[in-house]
Amino acid sequence: MMTNLVLFGPPGSGKGTQAALLRNRYHLLHLSTGDVFRRELQNNSSLGREVRSYLDQGLLVPDQLTFQVLLAEIDRHKQDAFRGLLFDGYPRTLAQAEMLHTYLQKINQPLNAVLLLEVSDEEVIRRIQLRGASSGRTDDTSDEIIRNRLRVYYSQTLPLVDYYRQQGILHAVAGEGSVEEIHQRLCDIADRFFS
Fold it and tell me: The CATH number of the domain where 95 resides is what?
């Protein structure tokens, strides 16, 4: 039986950084729709152009398209040996959460835990602007787009907190501090599922 985790939090909360550390520590398949989308953007594929039309407006990519991309990524790695799945920044809407739940139940691999990184809006904005300055990501440089992404997070993604709390698998973690401190907080929870 695999151990399946979701790493969840606002944009700029450190999900990508922490997911890489968790992936290495527990030997997980790291599934980041953002990484897949960026790869497609860089390749200027038809998917990449479709994704860009949403990201440039600070909008989420539609649920069904995102889910299809996720399933294709899982399929790409089906021959790899790993101890579980780590969903990084997915699901982002209740519809996505329900699609994921149905899929994982069908393959008899339910989620074990949802790890919520809690970070203040001010810290999120600071981190995204720093990331935009160093990476050249156009969606990270506009104050208006960043604030819109936060509004979208609060309206569409934050309802997942109650959804997963009702299932008894939500674990909130303080997402401010050093990378190492935050990682240790996450591992204090994740270790319970890998004993």
Answer: 3.40.50.300
